[in-house]
């Protein structure tokens, strides 16, 4: 197993660690978690640790792809496992933070973004079977960046924006922007392979 593949595997392990830390029954075991608090902000140490792990895993996503391309280490394992690791990382956080968290992500945001991923993956599979490779759009990259920042600020309970007394929650605004970018990128992706669907219809 080459280095990029090892990094991908480590990222999947970090996802397991991250989910365990966030869902561990601290209250049931009477474990008191320290709060990091100030005049206008507060968040649990658990979420700060989760943030560090999430940031590390997110950086590893960039690193394994960079190394694989630069040193020509692209493998079937990497092509298959890398997107799975990415979706496990982001979608597991989205689901958990919609159920619990210092700031809860709206359920509609999580449902639509995950539904978009399922549809795009299905379309991508059809495209691959037809021998067509679709390049990632700028909207897909914007979606990814917005998702990362939204999750980071949700974990921090909207800090440092919380100290500004804004009339809205910046982390939730970022969640909705990520949802919009996700839907737009998904729509663009489906449009880019619409000819494949026309071919399927003719063959039926």
| CATH architecture tag | Up-down Bundle
Mean pLDDT: 87
What is the overall silhouette? globular
Distance between the termini: 42 Å
What is the total domain count? 1
- The count of DSSP E runs of length 2 or more, i.e. the number of strands, is 2
Oligomer: single chain
State the helix count.
Answer: 7
Structure report:
- The protein is mainly α and 204 residues long.
- The chain has helices at 3-23, 45-70, 76-99, 107-129, 138-155, 170-192, 194-203, and strands spanning 35-37, 42-44.
- Helix 1 (3-23) packs antiparallel against helix 2.
- The protein is built from seven helices and two strands.
- The longest helix is centred in the N-terminal third of the chain and has 26 residues, at 45-70.
- 29% of the residues are buried.
- It has a two-stranded antiparallel sheet.
- The protein has a single domain, classed as CDP-alcohol phosphotransferase transmembrane (TM) domain (Four Helix Bundle (Hemerythrin (Met), subunit A)).
Write a short abstract of this structure.
By secondary structure, this protein is an all-alpha fold.
Summary keywords:
204 residues; mainly alpha; Four Helix Bundle (Hemerythrin (Met), subunit A); two-stranded antiparallel sheet; 7 helices; 2 strands
What's the arrangement of secondary structure elements?
Blueprint: H1 3-23, E1 35-37, E2 42-44, H2 45-70, H3 76-99, H4 107-129, H5 138-155, H6 170-192, H7 194-203
Antiparallel strand pairs: 1-2
Helix pairs in contact: 1-2, 1-3, 2-3, 2-5, 3-4, 3-5, 4-6, 5-6
